[in-house]
Design goal:
single chain, about 220 residues, Rossmann fold, two-stranded antiparallel ribbon, about 25% strand, disordered N terminus
Length: about 220
Amino acid sequence: MAESQSTSRSGREEISHPIFASLYDHVPDERFLKPHRDYLTADLSGRILDLGAGTGALFPHVLEAVGGRSVTEYHAVEPDPHMRRRAERRAVDLDLAVDVRDGRAESLPYPDDAFDYVLASVVFCTIADPDAALDEVARVLKPGGEFRFLEHVHADGWRARAQDVLNPLWARTAGGCQLNRETTERFVGHDSFDVLEVERLSIGVFPAAPFVRGRLQRRRSE
C-alpha cells in the first residue's frame, strides 16, 4: 500500500497519507475503543485541544460528553490534509463548533498555558518526535490542566520481539504508525507532569496492542 510523501519549502517532510486516510474510518475499532474514548472526554470544560485529531474520531464523544455544559473553545490539530478534510466534514455533519487547524504536535500553533485539557487518542505512535510533542503538550496546558491519552504501546516477551520485526513494514502501510514506542515510560517520566492515573488495557489486536490510557496533570509553579 503506497503512501505519498513530499517535502515543504522549509525542507521538512510533509505528512500525506491519502490511502490510509480513506481507509481509516472503515477500521472497526469503535467496538472496543468507545468506552476508552468516553474516558478521554468525560466531564470536559474550558478550552480543549484534540491532538492529532485524524478524521475526527473523538468529535462525537466530545459532543456527547459536553451536552448542555459550556466549553469555551474546542480546537483540533491534524497535519495530514486528507485526514483534516475528513475531520472538517465530520464536524459539519455533527454541527460541532471545532477549530480544526493544520499543525504538528511538535510545534503547536498556540500560546503558552492555552488549554484546560489536551486529548490524545492513538496519536503518539505516529508523531516523528514524541519527546518534542510531549514538551509542547506541557507548554500549552495551563498549570493544573490535564493531559488525557489512549495509546497502543510496546508489548512484552515474544510479542515485543515480533513488533520490532514487523515495525518497518507496518510503519510504511499504516500512516507512519510505530508498534514499539515506550509511550508509558515517556509520559510518566516527564518532569512537567504528575501522574493522576495510568491503566494498561487488554484490548486491541496484535500487533497494535496492548493499549494504555491515563491522565497526567500539568504541575503548578512552586
